[in-house]
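Researcher: Here's the sequence for the chain we discussed earlier.
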Amino acid sequence: MNDLFYTDQFQVTEKTISAVISLNDGHKIFSGHFPGQPILPGVCMIHIVKELLVKALQTDLRLIKTDQIKFLTVIDPRHTPSFHVKIDFDWMDTETIKASGSFFNGTTVYFKVQGSLFGGVSHKMPVSD
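Model: Thanks. This is the structure I predict for it:
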């Protein structure tokens, strides 16, 4: 999924990530999901959240549990080439992060997720671009 998306804006505060993501509508994943009607797969949405957390915290993470996932509106890269992402997170202990995130544009919410990720290392302060 190397070139599926690009981070246009990226800002991190102590416990929040705000980003603007642009999709590569020519990515091969869209030719199979679905031919003639491309839709960003749900697993890719979860991957984007994880990658933004990895970028902010500069540590490898592994999703260990999802408490809630809601796919509210499909993301067709032809009609929604970019969207905003907000992720709130907090360290539960020295290795586990609790996070909740959403993808949206204005009042349209595409996706919401809540879950836990394992970092395997003591937490660091988040970094912005």
